[in-house]
Request: fold
Amino acid sequence: MREFGKFGPLIGAIDEGTSNVKFLVFAANTSEVLTYHQITLNRFSPQEGWIEQDALEILNAVLECIEGIFKLQVTVDNLKKLDINPEDVVGIGITNQRETTIVWNSVTGEPLYSAISWSDVRTSKIVDELIKTKGAQCVSAVTQTSGLPLSTYFSSVKLRWLLQNVDILKKAVAAGECMAGTVDAWLIWNLTGGCNGGVHATDVTNASRTQLMSLRSLQWDMRLLRFFEIPLQILPKIKSSSEIYGYISIGSFLGTPIAGCLGDQQAALIGQNCVRFGQAKCTFGTGCFLLYNTGESIVHSQNGLLTTVAYQLGPNAPPTYALEGSVAVAGDTLQWLQNGMEILNDVGDSEMQAAEVTEDEEFNLCFVPAFNGLYSPYWKKDARGIICGLSSRTRGAHLIRAALEAICQQTRAVCEAMATDSAPLRRLLADGGSAQNSLLMQMQADVIGIPVVRPLMMESTALGAAIAAGKALGVWASTTPSPPSDTFLPTVSSEEREIRRMRWEKALNRCMGWTSDKPDLHKIEPDEVDHTTAVLPPGLFFLGTALLVVIADKFKII
Reply:
Protein backbone atom coordinates (compact mmCIF):
# COMPACT_ATOMS: atom_id res chain seq x y z
CA MET A 1 0.00 0.00 0.00
CA ARG A 2 1.25 3.47 -0.87
CA GLU A 3 2.69 5.57 1.95
CA PHE A 4 1.51 9.15 2.43
CA GLY A 5 2.83 12.11 4.40
CA LYS A 6 1.68 13.20 7.85
CA PHE A 7 -1.73 14.37 6.54
CA GLY A 8 -2.47 11.14 4.71
CA PRO A 9 -4.10 11.07 1.26
CA LEU A 10 -5.17 14.48 -0.05
CA ILE A 11 -8.03 15.52 -2.34
CA GLY A 12 -8.02 18.71 -4.40
CA ALA A 13 -11.25 20.58 -5.08
CA ILE A 14 -11.89 23.05 -7.90
CA ASP A 15 -14.67 25.40 -6.78
CA GLU A 16 -15.72 27.49 -9.80
CA GLY A 17 -18.40 29.96 -8.74
CA THR A 18 -20.11 32.90 -10.38
CA SER A 19 -17.83 35.46 -8.73
CA ASN A 20 -14.58 33.59 -8.14
CA VAL A 21 -12.57 30.42 -8.60
CA LYS A 22 -10.87 28.53 -5.77
CA PHE A 23 -8.63 25.51 -5.58
CA LEU A 24 -8.49 23.86 -2.17
CA VAL A 25 -6.60 20.86 -0.82
CA PHE A 26 -8.31 18.72 1.84
CA ALA A 27 -6.92 15.99 4.08
CA ALA A 28 -9.14 12.99 3.34
CA ASN A 29 -8.74 11.63 6.86
CA THR A 30 -9.92 14.78 8.67
CA SER A 31 -11.73 16.99 6.09
CA GLU A 32 -9.28 19.75 7.04
CA VAL A 33 -8.45 22.48 4.49
CA LEU A 34 -4.66 22.55 4.18
CA THR A 35 -4.23 25.28 1.57
CA TYR A 36 -6.22 27.18 -1.02
CA HIS A 37 -6.00 29.99 -3.56
CA GLN A 38 -8.74 32.20 -4.97
CA ILE A 39 -9.13 34.40 -8.06
CA THR A 40 -12.00 36.79 -8.81
CA LEU A 41 -13.94 36.37 -12.06
CA ASN A 42 -15.40 39.13 -14.21
CA ARG A 43 -18.95 39.40 -15.52
CA PHE A 44 -20.04 41.75 -18.27
CA SER A 45 -23.34 42.90 -19.73
CA PRO A 46 -23.24 43.79 -23.45
CA GLN A 47 -26.98 44.57 -23.37
CA GLU A 48 -29.57 45.06 -20.70
CA GLY A 49 -30.42 41.73 -19.09
CA TRP A 50 -27.49 39.96 -20.79
CA ILE A 51 -24.90 38.58 -18.37
CA GLU A 52 -21.83 36.88 -19.78
CA GLN A 53 -18.42 35.59 -18.75
CA ASP A 54 -15.27 34.75 -20.66
CA ALA A 55 -14.95 30.95 -20.88
CA LEU A 56 -11.17 31.18 -21.36
CA GLU A 57 -10.88 33.45 -18.32
CA ILE A 58 -12.71 30.81 -16.27
CA LEU A 59 -10.39 28.07 -17.52
CA ASN A 60 -7.23 30.11 -16.99
CA ALA A 61 -8.34 31.08 -13.49
CA VAL A 62 -8.76 27.40 -12.64
CA LEU A 63 -5.31 26.56 -14.01
CA GLU A 64 -3.75 29.51 -12.20
CA CYS A 65 -5.36 28.49 -8.92
CA ILE A 66 -4.14 24.92 -9.29
CA GLU A 67 -0.57 25.66 -10.20
CA GLY A 68 0.12 29.21 -11.23
CA ILE A 69 0.52 29.29 -15.01
CA PHE A 70 1.64 32.90 -14.64
CA LYS A 71 4.69 31.88 -12.55
CA LEU A 72 2.85 32.26 -9.25
CA GLN A 73 3.17 28.59 -8.23
CA VAL A 74 0.58 29.33 -5.58
CA THR A 75 -0.95 26.05 -4.41
CA VAL A 76 1.99 23.75 -5.15
CA ASP A 77 4.41 26.06 -3.32
CA ASN A 78 1.99 26.33 -0.40
CA LEU A 79 1.93 22.55 -0.14
CA LYS A 80 5.73 22.41 -0.08
CA LYS A 81 5.87 25.06 2.66
CA LEU A 82 3.57 22.87 4.75
CA ASP A 83 5.88 19.92 4.16
CA ILE A 84 3.27 18.24 1.97
CA ASN A 85 4.16 16.27 -1.11
CA PRO A 86 1.89 17.33 -4.02
CA GLU A 87 1.99 13.67 -5.08
CA ASP A 88 -0.16 12.95 -2.00
CA VAL A 89 -3.05 14.59 -3.92
CA VAL A 90 -4.67 11.38 -5.15
CA GLY A 91 -7.71 12.90 -6.83
CA ILE A 92 -9.58 16.08 -7.70
CA GLY A 93 -13.25 17.00 -7.46
CA ILE A 94 -14.98 19.76 -9.39
CA THR A 95 -17.92 21.91 -8.32
CA ASN A 96 -19.25 24.78 -10.38
CA GLN A 97 -21.87 27.44 -10.98
CA ARG A 98 -24.82 25.71 -12.61
CA GLU A 99 -26.90 26.49 -15.73
CA THR A 100 -24.18 28.78 -17.16
CA THR A 101 -23.75 27.55 -20.74
CA ILE A 102 -20.61 27.28 -22.89
CA VAL A 103 -20.22 26.19 -26.53
CA TRP A 104 -16.84 25.49 -28.14
CA ASN A 105 -15.12 24.04 -31.20
CA SER A 106 -13.93 20.48 -30.65
CA VAL A 107 -11.09 20.87 -33.18
CA THR A 108 -9.62 24.22 -32.15
CA GLY A 109 -10.77 24.25 -28.53
CA GLU A 110 -11.89 27.86 -28.89
CA PRO A 111 -15.17 29.04 -27.37
CA LEU A 112 -17.76 29.81 -30.04
CA TYR A 113 -19.40 32.46 -27.86
CA SER A 114 -19.14 33.92 -24.38
CA ALA A 115 -20.38 31.84 -21.46
CA ILE A 116 -24.02 32.82 -20.93
CA SER A 117 -24.62 33.16 -17.19
CA TRP A 118 -27.39 31.41 -15.29
CA SER A 119 -28.89 34.80 -14.40
CA ASP A 120 -29.00 36.04 -18.03
CA VAL A 121 -32.55 36.85 -19.24
CA ARG A 122 -32.03 37.35 -23.01
CA THR A 123 -34.13 34.23 -23.62
CA SER A 124 -37.31 35.80 -22.24
CA LYS A 125 -38.94 35.96 -25.69
CA ILE A 126 -38.00 32.34 -26.40
CA VAL A 127 -39.73 31.27 -23.19
CA ASP A 128 -42.86 33.24 -24.15
CA GLU A 129 -42.76 31.77 -27.65
CA LEU A 130 -42.51 28.19 -26.41
CA ILE A 131 -45.37 28.65 -23.96
CA LYS A 132 -47.54 30.16 -26.69
CA THR A 133 -46.76 27.73 -29.52
CA LYS A 134 -46.31 24.42 -27.68
CA GLY A 135 -49.38 24.60 -25.45
CA ALA A 136 -49.99 24.03 -21.75
CA GLN A 137 -49.97 20.22 -21.91
CA CYS A 138 -46.59 20.13 -23.63
CA VAL A 139 -45.09 22.70 -21.26
CA SER A 140 -46.39 20.72 -18.27
CA ALA A 141 -44.75 17.57 -19.65
CA VAL A 142 -41.40 19.38 -19.77
CA THR A 143 -41.70 20.19 -16.06
CA GLN A 144 -42.78 16.65 -15.16
CA THR A 145 -39.87 15.10 -17.05
CA SER A 146 -37.11 17.54 -16.10
CA GLY A 147 -38.43 18.84 -12.77
CA LEU A 148 -38.01 22.41 -13.98
CA PRO A 149 -40.48 25.05 -15.22
CA LEU A 150 -39.93 26.95 -18.45
CA SER A 151 -37.69 29.86 -17.47
CA THR A 152 -34.74 31.94 -18.66
CA TYR A 153 -32.79 30.31 -15.79
CA PHE A 154 -31.93 26.97 -17.37
CA SER A 155 -29.44 25.89 -20.03
CA SER A 156 -32.07 24.59 -22.48
CA VAL A 157 -33.24 28.00 -23.69
CA LYS A 158 -29.72 29.43 -23.60
CA LEU A 159 -28.59 26.70 -25.99
CA ARG A 160 -31.62 27.30 -28.19
CA TRP A 161 -30.77 31.02 -28.35
CA LEU A 162 -27.15 30.24 -29.27
CA LEU A 163 -28.18 27.82 -32.00
CA GLN A 164 -30.57 30.39 -33.44
CA ASN A 165 -28.33 33.46 -33.27
CA VAL A 166 -24.63 32.55 -33.57
CA ASP A 167 -23.58 31.80 -37.17
CA ILE A 168 -20.17 30.37 -36.27
CA LEU A 169 -21.95 27.94 -33.96
CA LYS A 170 -24.34 26.84 -36.71
CA LYS A 171 -21.35 26.11 -38.97
CA ALA A 172 -19.60 24.13 -36.21
CA VAL A 173 -22.72 22.01 -35.65
CA ALA A 174 -23.01 21.33 -39.38
CA ALA A 175 -19.35 20.30 -39.50
CA GLY A 176 -19.69 18.05 -36.46
CA GLU A 177 -17.23 20.23 -34.52
CA CYS A 178 -19.48 21.72 -31.84
CA MET A 179 -19.43 20.81 -28.17
CA ALA A 180 -21.73 22.26 -25.52
CA GLY A 181 -22.17 21.97 -21.81
CA THR A 182 -22.24 23.62 -18.45
CA VAL A 183 -19.02 24.91 -16.87
CA ASP A 184 -18.07 21.51 -15.43
CA ALA A 185 -18.08 19.93 -18.92
CA TRP A 186 -15.88 22.74 -20.27
CA LEU A 187 -13.36 22.28 -17.45
CA ILE A 188 -13.30 18.47 -17.57
CA TRP A 189 -12.74 18.48 -21.35
CA ASN A 190 -9.86 20.95 -21.13
CA LEU A 191 -8.21 19.44 -18.05
CA THR A 192 -8.26 15.93 -19.55
CA GLY A 193 -6.66 16.85 -22.88
CA GLY A 194 -8.97 19.19 -24.75
CA CYS A 195 -8.51 18.76 -28.51
CA ASN A 196 -6.14 15.88 -27.80
CA GLY A 197 -8.61 13.37 -26.44
CA GLY A 198 -10.36 15.39 -23.74
CA VAL A 199 -13.34 13.74 -22.06
CA HIS A 200 -16.69 15.37 -22.88
CA ALA A 201 -18.70 14.55 -19.76
CA THR A 202 -20.94 16.05 -17.11
CA ASP A 203 -22.55 14.71 -13.95
CA VAL A 204 -26.21 14.07 -13.12
CA THR A 205 -26.54 17.16 -10.91
CA ASN A 206 -25.36 19.58 -13.59
CA ALA A 207 -27.27 17.72 -16.30
CA SER A 208 -30.44 18.03 -14.22
CA ARG A 209 -30.11 21.83 -14.45
CA THR A 210 -30.08 21.93 -18.22
CA GLN A 211 -33.79 20.97 -18.48
CA LEU A 212 -32.76 18.37 -21.05
CA MET A 213 -32.34 15.33 -18.77
CA SER A 214 -35.04 12.95 -17.54
CA LEU A 215 -35.06 12.80 -13.74
CA ARG A 216 -35.97 9.10 -13.89
CA SER A 217 -33.61 7.77 -16.55
CA LEU A 218 -30.75 10.19 -15.73
CA GLN A 219 -30.11 10.46 -19.48
CA TRP A 220 -30.74 13.10 -22.12
CA ASP A 221 -34.42 12.86 -23.00
CA MET A 222 -35.23 12.81 -26.71
CA ARG A 223 -38.62 14.48 -26.19
CA LEU A 224 -37.00 17.36 -24.33
CA LEU A 225 -34.31 17.68 -27.02
CA ARG A 226 -37.00 17.87 -29.71
CA PHE A 227 -38.98 20.40 -27.68
CA PHE A 228 -36.00 22.76 -27.44
CA GLU A 229 -34.49 21.72 -30.82
CA ILE A 230 -31.12 20.75 -29.36
CA PRO A 231 -28.97 18.18 -31.25
CA LEU A 232 -27.92 15.29 -29.03
CA GLN A 233 -24.44 15.01 -30.54
CA ILE A 234 -23.22 18.32 -29.08
CA LEU A 235 -24.00 17.31 -25.47
CA PRO A 236 -21.63 15.59 -23.02
CA LYS A 237 -22.03 12.08 -21.64
CA ILE A 238 -23.86 12.00 -18.29
CA LYS A 239 -22.04 10.24 -15.43
CA SER A 240 -22.60 9.88 -11.71
CA SER A 241 -21.24 12.47 -9.28
CA SER A 242 -18.57 10.13 -7.89
CA GLU A 243 -16.44 8.19 -10.38
CA ILE A 244 -13.30 8.70 -12.41
CA TYR A 245 -14.02 11.00 -15.37
CA GLY A 246 -10.49 11.16 -16.74
CA TYR A 247 -6.99 12.23 -15.78
CA ILE A 248 -5.31 15.63 -15.57
CA SER A 249 -3.18 16.01 -18.70
CA ILE A 250 -0.98 18.99 -17.72
CA GLY A 251 1.07 20.46 -14.88
CA SER A 252 2.19 19.22 -11.50
CA PHE A 253 -0.94 17.11 -11.04
CA LEU A 254 -0.36 15.28 -14.34
CA GLY A 255 -2.10 11.90 -14.24
CA THR A 256 -4.24 12.74 -11.20
CA PRO A 257 -7.81 11.50 -11.68
CA ILE A 258 -10.81 13.83 -11.73
CA ALA A 259 -13.06 11.64 -9.60
CA GLY A 260 -15.95 13.83 -8.48
CA CYS A 261 -18.25 16.44 -9.99
CA LEU A 262 -21.29 18.25 -8.62
CA GLY A 263 -23.15 21.48 -9.22
CA ASP A 264 -22.24 23.94 -6.48
CA GLN A 265 -25.53 23.79 -4.56
CA GLN A 266 -25.61 20.00 -4.54
CA ALA A 267 -21.97 19.94 -3.46
CA ALA A 268 -22.84 22.19 -0.52
CA LEU A 269 -25.63 19.77 0.44
CA ILE A 270 -23.05 16.98 0.77
CA GLY A 271 -20.50 19.31 2.40
CA GLN A 272 -23.10 20.22 5.03
CA ASN A 273 -23.71 16.48 5.60
CA CYS A 274 -27.37 16.74 4.52
CA VAL A 275 -27.42 13.16 3.31
CA ARG A 276 -30.65 12.04 4.98
CA PHE A 277 -34.27 12.63 4.01
CA GLY A 278 -35.61 15.94 5.37
CA GLN A 279 -32.25 17.65 5.88
CA ALA A 280 -31.80 21.06 4.22
CA LYS A 281 -29.16 23.71 3.68
CA CYS A 282 -29.13 27.22 2.25
CA THR A 283 -26.14 28.69 0.44
CA PHE A 284 -25.91 32.48 0.63
CA GLY A 285 -23.81 33.49 -2.36
CA THR A 286 -24.34 35.58 -5.49
CA GLY A 287 -27.83 34.13 -5.37
CA CYS A 288 -29.41 32.15 -2.57
CA PHE A 289 -30.23 28.45 -2.90
CA LEU A 290 -32.07 26.21 -0.46
CA LEU A 291 -32.00 22.44 -1.06
CA TYR A 292 -34.16 19.90 0.83
CA ASN A 293 -33.12 16.25 0.61
CA THR A 294 -36.09 14.09 -0.50
CA GLY A 295 -34.13 10.82 -0.61
CA GLU A 296 -34.89 8.50 -3.52
CA SER A 297 -38.30 10.12 -4.07
CA ILE A 298 -38.97 12.55 -6.91
CA VAL A 299 -41.20 15.18 -5.31
CA HIS A 300 -42.91 17.63 -7.68
CA SER A 301 -43.58 20.95 -6.00
CA GLN A 302 -47.00 22.57 -6.01
CA ASN A 303 -45.54 25.81 -4.64
CA GLY A 304 -42.95 27.11 -7.07
CA LEU A 305 -39.96 24.97 -6.11
CA LEU A 306 -37.72 22.94 -8.42
CA THR A 307 -37.18 19.20 -8.45
CA THR A 308 -33.55 18.31 -9.00
CA VAL A 309 -30.97 15.55 -8.58
CA ALA A 310 -29.13 16.04 -5.28
CA TYR A 311 -26.33 13.55 -6.04
CA GLN A 312 -25.48 10.05 -7.21
CA LEU A 313 -22.43 8.77 -5.37
CA GLY A 314 -21.29 6.15 -7.83
CA PRO A 315 -22.42 4.79 -11.22
CA ASN A 316 -24.27 1.90 -9.55
CA ALA A 317 -25.67 3.92 -6.65
CA PRO A 318 -29.29 5.08 -6.64
CA PRO A 319 -29.79 8.82 -7.19
CA THR A 320 -30.85 11.07 -4.33
CA TYR A 321 -33.25 13.90 -5.19
CA ALA A 322 -33.99 17.31 -3.70
CA LEU A 323 -36.49 20.13 -3.73
CA GLU A 324 -34.82 23.46 -4.41
CA GLY A 325 -35.75 27.07 -3.95
CA SER A 326 -33.61 29.48 -5.98
CA VAL A 327 -33.29 33.19 -5.23
CA ALA A 328 -31.73 35.07 -8.16
CA VAL A 329 -30.22 38.01 -6.27
CA ALA A 330 -28.75 37.72 -2.77
CA GLY A 331 -25.09 38.68 -2.30
CA ASP A 332 -25.30 40.46 -5.64
CA THR A 333 -27.52 43.05 -3.93
CA LEU A 334 -24.58 44.09 -1.76
CA GLN A 335 -22.27 44.02 -4.77
CA TRP A 336 -24.65 46.42 -6.51
CA LEU A 337 -24.64 48.74 -3.50
CA GLN A 338 -20.84 48.75 -3.72
CA ASN A 339 -20.26 49.02 -7.47
CA GLY A 340 -23.50 50.55 -8.72
CA MET A 341 -24.57 52.94 -5.99
CA GLU A 342 -21.16 53.38 -4.28
CA ILE A 343 -22.81 53.27 -0.88
CA LEU A 344 -20.49 50.50 0.31
CA ASN A 345 -16.72 50.75 0.06
CA ASP A 346 -16.56 46.98 0.39
CA VAL A 347 -19.19 44.26 0.68
CA GLY A 348 -17.42 43.13 3.83
CA ASP A 349 -18.43 46.43 5.50
CA SER A 350 -22.15 45.67 5.17
CA GLU A 351 -22.46 44.06 8.59
CA MET A 352 -20.90 47.00 10.41
CA GLN A 353 -22.85 49.65 8.50
CA ALA A 354 -26.21 47.85 8.73
CA ALA A 355 -25.68 47.50 12.48
CA GLU A 356 -25.75 51.32 12.73
CA VAL A 357 -29.55 51.09 12.39
CA THR A 358 -30.49 50.75 16.06
CA GLU A 359 -33.36 48.64 17.37
CA ASP A 360 -35.28 51.65 18.67
CA GLU A 361 -35.00 53.45 15.32
CA GLU A 362 -38.12 53.34 13.17
CA PHE A 363 -37.30 51.22 10.15
CA ASN A 364 -39.86 50.88 7.38
CA LEU A 365 -37.64 50.65 4.30
CA CYS A 366 -38.21 47.67 1.98
CA PHE A 367 -35.94 46.76 -0.92
CA VAL A 368 -36.91 44.05 -3.43
CA PRO A 369 -33.81 43.44 -5.62
CA ALA A 370 -35.61 41.83 -8.56
CA PHE A 371 -33.05 43.20 -11.02
CA ASN A 372 -33.84 40.59 -13.67
CA GLY A 373 -37.05 39.08 -12.35
CA LEU A 374 -37.85 36.73 -9.49
CA TYR A 375 -37.15 33.00 -9.17
CA SER A 376 -38.64 30.67 -6.51
CA PRO A 377 -41.37 30.59 -5.46
CA TYR A 378 -42.76 33.40 -7.66
CA TRP A 379 -41.27 32.79 -11.14
CA LYS A 380 -42.01 36.31 -12.36
CA LYS A 381 -39.59 37.25 -15.11
CA ASP A 382 -41.36 40.61 -15.59
CA ALA A 383 -40.68 41.79 -12.01
CA ARG A 384 -38.06 44.49 -11.40
CA GLY A 385 -36.38 46.02 -8.37
CA ILE A 386 -38.21 48.38 -6.05
CA ILE A 387 -37.45 50.46 -2.94
CA CYS A 388 -40.38 51.41 -0.73
CA GLY A 389 -40.55 53.64 2.32
CA LEU A 390 -37.96 56.31 1.51
CA SER A 391 -38.07 59.40 3.71
CA SER A 392 -35.94 62.46 4.33
CA ARG A 393 -34.31 60.56 7.20
CA THR A 394 -33.21 57.62 5.02
CA ARG A 395 -29.48 56.95 5.25
CA GLY A 396 -27.11 54.61 3.46
CA ALA A 397 -27.16 52.28 6.47
CA HIS A 398 -30.93 51.92 6.09
CA LEU A 399 -30.60 50.74 2.49
CA ILE A 400 -27.83 48.31 3.40
CA ARG A 401 -29.95 46.84 6.18
CA ALA A 402 -32.94 46.65 3.82
CA ALA A 403 -30.74 44.74 1.35
CA LEU A 404 -29.88 42.20 4.06
CA GLU A 405 -33.54 41.84 4.99
CA ALA A 406 -34.36 41.30 1.29
CA ILE A 407 -32.12 38.23 1.31
CA CYS A 408 -33.83 36.95 4.47
CA GLN A 409 -37.38 37.55 3.24
CA GLN A 410 -36.76 35.82 -0.07
CA THR A 411 -35.32 32.86 1.83
CA ARG A 412 -38.35 32.86 4.15
CA ALA A 413 -40.69 32.58 1.16
CA VAL A 414 -38.76 29.54 -0.07
CA CYS A 415 -38.84 27.96 3.42
CA GLU A 416 -42.62 28.41 3.57
CA ALA A 417 -43.04 26.83 0.13
CA MET A 418 -40.88 23.91 1.28
CA ALA A 419 -42.95 23.47 4.42
CA THR A 420 -46.12 23.22 2.30
CA ASP A 421 -44.58 20.77 -0.16
CA SER A 422 -42.90 18.57 2.44
CA ALA A 423 -42.53 19.49 6.12
CA PRO A 424 -41.52 22.59 8.12
CA LEU A 425 -37.80 22.97 8.70
CA ARG A 426 -36.63 22.65 12.29
CA ARG A 427 -33.38 24.47 11.57
CA LEU A 428 -31.59 25.94 8.57
CA LEU A 429 -27.98 25.06 7.77
CA ALA A 430 -26.23 28.03 6.17
CA ASP A 431 -23.06 28.41 4.12
CA GLY A 432 -21.66 30.57 1.31
CA GLY A 433 -19.77 33.85 1.20
CA SER A 434 -22.60 36.02 2.54
CA ALA A 435 -23.11 33.66 5.48
CA GLN A 436 -19.95 35.11 7.01
CA ASN A 437 -22.09 38.14 7.85
CA SER A 438 -23.26 37.39 11.40
CA LEU A 439 -25.88 40.13 11.34
CA LEU A 440 -27.40 38.57 8.22
CA MET A 441 -27.52 35.18 9.92
CA GLN A 442 -29.22 36.67 13.00
CA MET A 443 -31.72 38.53 10.82
CA GLN A 444 -32.42 35.29 8.95
CA ALA A 445 -33.18 33.45 12.19
CA ASP A 446 -35.50 36.29 13.24
CA VAL A 447 -37.32 36.32 9.89
CA ILE A 448 -37.94 32.55 9.62
CA GLY A 449 -38.36 31.86 13.34
CA ILE A 450 -36.05 28.82 13.54
CA PRO A 451 -32.35 28.40 14.42
CA VAL A 452 -29.81 29.13 11.70
CA VAL A 453 -26.69 26.98 11.95
CA ARG A 454 -23.46 28.15 10.29
CA PRO A 455 -20.37 25.89 10.12
CA LEU A 456 -17.10 27.35 11.32
CA MET A 457 -15.43 25.88 8.21
CA MET A 458 -17.22 27.82 5.46
CA GLU A 459 -15.98 25.87 2.42
CA SER A 460 -18.93 23.47 2.32
CA THR A 461 -19.20 23.55 -1.47
CA ALA A 462 -15.59 22.58 -2.10
CA LEU A 463 -15.78 20.00 0.70
CA GLY A 464 -18.73 18.33 -1.04
CA ALA A 465 -16.74 17.98 -4.27
CA ALA A 466 -13.77 16.60 -2.34
CA ILE A 467 -16.00 14.06 -0.56
CA ALA A 468 -17.43 12.86 -3.89
CA ALA A 469 -13.93 12.42 -5.36
CA GLY A 470 -12.56 10.82 -2.18
CA LYS A 471 -15.39 8.28 -2.05
CA ALA A 472 -14.85 7.31 -5.69
CA LEU A 473 -11.19 6.63 -4.89
CA GLY A 474 -11.90 4.85 -1.61
CA VAL A 475 -9.88 7.27 0.54
CA TRP A 476 -12.70 9.16 2.28
CA ALA A 477 -14.40 7.90 5.42
CA SER A 478 -17.79 6.24 4.91
CA THR A 479 -19.40 8.81 7.23
CA THR A 480 -18.51 12.46 7.58
CA PRO A 481 -19.14 14.07 10.98
CA SER A 482 -21.05 17.35 11.10
CA PRO A 483 -18.57 20.23 11.35
CA PRO A 484 -18.39 22.57 14.39
CA SER A 485 -20.80 25.47 13.98
CA ASP A 486 -22.33 28.69 15.28
CA THR A 487 -26.07 28.77 16.00
CA PHE A 488 -28.25 31.89 15.69
CA LEU A 489 -31.55 31.73 17.58
CA PRO A 490 -34.64 33.88 16.82
CA THR A 491 -34.85 36.97 19.04
CA VAL A 492 -38.05 38.70 17.86
CA SER A 493 -41.68 37.99 18.66
CA SER A 494 -43.99 36.23 16.22
CA GLU A 495 -45.96 39.50 15.99
CA GLU A 496 -42.90 41.47 14.89
CA ARG A 497 -42.00 38.70 12.44
CA GLU A 498 -45.47 38.90 10.89
CA ILE A 499 -45.30 42.70 10.60
CA ARG A 500 -42.02 42.42 8.69
CA ARG A 501 -43.45 39.74 6.40
CA MET A 502 -46.56 41.78 5.56
CA ARG A 503 -44.50 44.90 4.87
CA TRP A 504 -42.14 42.97 2.60
CA GLU A 505 -44.98 41.35 0.66
CA LYS A 506 -46.63 44.72 0.17
CA ALA A 507 -43.44 45.95 -1.52
CA LEU A 508 -43.12 42.66 -3.41
CA ASN A 509 -46.60 43.06 -4.88
CA ARG A 510 -45.64 46.44 -6.32
CA CYS A 511 -42.63 45.17 -8.27
CA MET A 512 -44.62 42.68 -10.37
CA GLY A 513 -45.38 43.21 -14.06
CA TRP A 514 -42.90 46.05 -14.47
CA THR A 515 -41.72 45.02 -17.94
CA SER A 516 -45.10 44.03 -19.36
CA ASP A 517 -46.79 46.16 -22.02
CA LYS A 518 -49.80 46.64 -19.79
CA PRO A 519 -48.78 47.14 -16.15
CA ASP A 520 -50.72 45.01 -13.69
CA LEU A 521 -52.44 47.95 -12.02
CA HIS A 522 -55.22 45.97 -10.38
CA LYS A 523 -52.90 45.02 -7.54
CA ILE A 524 -52.59 48.63 -6.37
CA GLU A 525 -55.67 50.72 -5.82
CA PRO A 526 -55.20 54.48 -6.45
CA ASP A 527 -55.71 55.36 -2.81
CA GLU A 528 -53.04 52.85 -1.80
CA VAL A 529 -50.24 54.45 -3.81
CA ASP A 530 -47.22 55.19 -1.62
CA HIS A 531 -45.56 58.33 -3.00
CA THR A 532 -42.31 57.50 -1.22
CA THR A 533 -41.81 54.51 -3.51
CA ALA A 534 -38.95 54.58 -5.99
CA VAL A 535 -39.33 51.96 -8.72
CA LEU A 536 -36.16 50.64 -10.31
CA PRO A 537 -36.50 50.13 -14.08
CA PRO A 538 -35.22 46.90 -15.66
CA GLY A 539 -31.73 45.58 -15.04
CA LEU A 540 -28.86 47.48 -13.52
CA PHE A 541 -29.00 50.38 -15.96
CA PHE A 542 -31.27 52.77 -14.10
CA LEU A 543 -28.64 54.88 -12.36
CA GLY A 544 -29.36 57.78 -14.69
CA THR A 545 -32.82 58.34 -13.27
CA ALA A 546 -32.94 61.64 -11.48
CA LEU A 547 -34.38 60.42 -8.20
CA LEU A 548 -31.82 57.71 -7.64
CA VAL A 549 -28.93 59.92 -8.64
CA VAL A 550 -30.00 62.33 -5.93
CA ILE A 551 -30.30 59.46 -3.47
CA ALA A 552 -26.88 58.11 -4.44
CA ASP A 553 -25.29 61.52 -4.00
CA LYS A 554 -26.89 61.83 -0.60
CA PHE A 555 -25.63 58.43 0.50
CA LYS A 556 -22.07 59.01 -0.72
CA ILE A 557 -21.50 61.77 1.76
CA ILE A 558 -22.84 59.87 4.76
About this structure: The radius of gyration is 23 Å. The chain has 17 helices and 22 strands.
